[in-house]
Amino acid sequence: MIDLPLAADFKALAAMLAAALDARDGEDQVAIRQGQRLAARIEHAEPPALPLPVVRAGVTYLVTGGFGGVGQLVGKWLAEQGASDIALLGRTARADHPVLRDIEARGARVHVVAADVADEAALTVALQRLAGQAPPLAGILHAAAEFGISPIVEADRTGAATVLRPKLDGVLALERATAGHSLDFMVLFSSTTALLGAFGYAAYAAANAFLDATAETAAPGRKIVAIRWGTWEAMRLASELQQGAYREAGLQPLPNAQALQLMGRALAGTAATPIFAKIDWSRLKP
């Protein structure tokens, strides 16, 4: 991956790209800034040990992909942290879904939002409707995702678009639809595939790289955190075969409770793109 500066003409960009491709130094993720070539590095860091309260009552938190395995856990976690109103968004949202009772049992009201997060017009209408039924929106947790495994030589535009849509188009639609809202935070569920790569996950890696860039370039005063997750025990999107491939590559599933705790600590911290993964470095196979 080569991150080129925006403020450069075509010839300058072409020269930078050619130089980066010809470097042959083994670096697979570089950024060109002020004439310097910067390479990505992973550093171990401890998130805040005692997270500050990041969830409050009297406002609404929106969870996209809210009816998926991870989305349901996030909704329950928000209620346990003291949220009074939680909106679960999904294309196949159901008012009779069991997760609604689970969240309500934890003391929160649940609002069902039936919409495609990547459809900006539909999302805008859905959020306007939500605003008339619930307290002001204060936080978004964007967990919508679509998996698609395909080697590069077999990839096609349709398959790539399907994988890119919920994450890339989804975050753009969310940003535009909530431009007038004063949000406490936006959490983007990214993946280590954007950083480490994974066989067959080119489109998925690209989608998550876009989420990372969104967090890293967020406007001052707008807290956006893209968490680069390894795998969760609750990731239902991935089949047993895919989870097996993750384990073979050195990535072990994070226990759900631990992942949720880490998410809370990330919200109390300042890192824009933290990595939370259970990695066997001796077996890691990007």
Main beta-sheet annotation: 7 strands, parallel
CATH architecture of the largest domain: 3-Layer(aba) Sandwich
Let me know the CATH homologous superfamily of the largest domain: NAD(P)-binding Rossmann-like Domain
| Beta fraction | 15-25%
End-to-end Cα distance = 14 Å
Order of helices and strands: EHEEEHEHEHEHEHHEEHEHEE
- How many helices? The count is 9
CATH class of the largest domain: Alpha Beta
Give the averaged pLDDT, no decimals.
88
Low-confidence stretches: none
Biggest sheet, spatial arrangement of strands: 6-5-4-7-8-9-12
Report the strand count: 13
- Summing up helix and strand content along with how strands pair, one would put the structural category as alpha/beta
Overview features:
single chain; 286 residues; alpha/beta; Rossmann fold; 2 domains; seven-stranded parallel sheet; three-stranded mixed sheet; 9 helices; 37% helix; globular
Can you put this structure into words, describing what you see?
This protein is an alpha/beta fold. It has two domains: 1-39, no CATH class; 53-279, Rossmann fold, CATH 3.40.50.720. The chain is 37% helix and 20% strand. The protein is built from nine helices and 13 strands. The strands form three sheets. It has a seven-stranded parallel β-sheet with strand order 6-5-4-7-8-9-12, with helices on both faces. The two termini are 14 Å apart.
Short account of what is shown:
The protein is an alpha/beta fold.
Question: Layout of SSEs?
Answer:
Blueprint: E1 2-3, H1 10-21, E2 30-33, E3 36-39, E4 60-64, H2 69-80, E5 85-90, H3 98-104, E6 109-114, H4 120-131, E7 137-142, H5 157-177, E8 185-191, H6 193-196, H7 202-216, E9 224-229, E10 231-232, H8 240-249, E11 251-254, H9 256-268, E12 275-276, E13 278-279
Parallel strand pairs: 1-2, 4-5, 4-7, 5-6, 7-8, 8-9, 9-12, 10-11
Antiparallel strand pairs: 2-3, 11-13
Helix pairs in contact: 2-3, 4-5, 5-7
